[in-house]
Design brief:
This protein has 224 residues and is mainly alpha-helical. The chain has twelve helices and no strands.
Length: 224
């Protein structure tokens, strides 16, 4: 995101991708907020707003005829999108993927492939993987999708199952200590297991996310 904001704002291809995607997904849109980002973000968001203005101003309300099948369907199914505004609704929606999500997916693909290729060997990544907290569920799927070697398959599942078993045990301990009968027992590392479970299933460690939020909140908005 830093590279995008500080180095690639004037890249025509990037600007076009941002316009087509109607900005960024919610997660990456808020990730744009950082020190010194006001100008770069303003330039990109202005492009998007201009595109929305142009699209909306050229749109027309398409009134269906009184006895049309479309109007009959809309009367029966009130949740169905209205045909009169369907064209504008579609045009205002993303016409392409979030540029940051696309870049993220490309990096994930490359890293997952590299991980599998370098799993074994004298300087392989298997031991580091064992010492880590394991992959989050989305990355487990990505890595498994790139495995065609049974040895790598067995090694990765062995490590991942061990991590999940440990997490399950800590979650169970947290649930147990939440019972009033054991309320006097001190809560240890399992106290954060619910947060680590979220990170394990959804991705990104909560420590990293919290650290980033704290960093941003401590920086004065220089450009404002």
């Amino acid at each position: 995101m830093d590279g995008l904001i500080y180095e690639r704002v004037n890249d025509a291809g990037v600007r076009q991708a941002v316009r087509r995607s109607r900005g960024f997904c919610e997660r990456h849109a808020w990730d744009l907020i950082r020190h010194g980002a006001a100008l770069g973000v303003a330039i990109m968001m202005r492009d998007v707003v201009r595109e929305l203005l142009s699209t909306t101003r050229s749109a027309q309300f398409k009134r269906p005829s009184t006895w049309s099948v479309t109007r009959l369907h809309e009367a029966v199914d009130t949740k169905q999108p209205r045909a009169a505004t369907a064209g504008l609704v579609a045009a205002l929606g993303p016409q392409g993927p979030c540029p940051a999500c696309k870049h993220e997916a490309e990096i994930d693909h490359a890293l997952a492939s590299s991980f599998v290729e370098n799993l074994h060997g004298p300087e392989g990544l298997l031991e580091a993987y064992r010492r880590s907290d394991g992959f989050c569920l989305p990355h487990v799927r990505q890595v498994l999708a790139r495995i065609s070697d049974e040895r790598a398959y067995d090694a990765i599942l062995e490590v991942q199952l061990a991590h999940w078993s440990q997490l399950e045990a800590e979650l169970s301990e947290l649930v147990r200590k939440s019972d009033y009968r054991f309320a006097d027992e001190e809560v240890g590392d399992e106290g954060t297991s619910w947060l680590r479970a979220i990170a394990s299933l959804a991705g990104e460690s909560f420590q990293q996310k919290w650290h980033r939020v704290q960093q941003r909140s401590s920086r004065p908005p220089k450009d404002e």
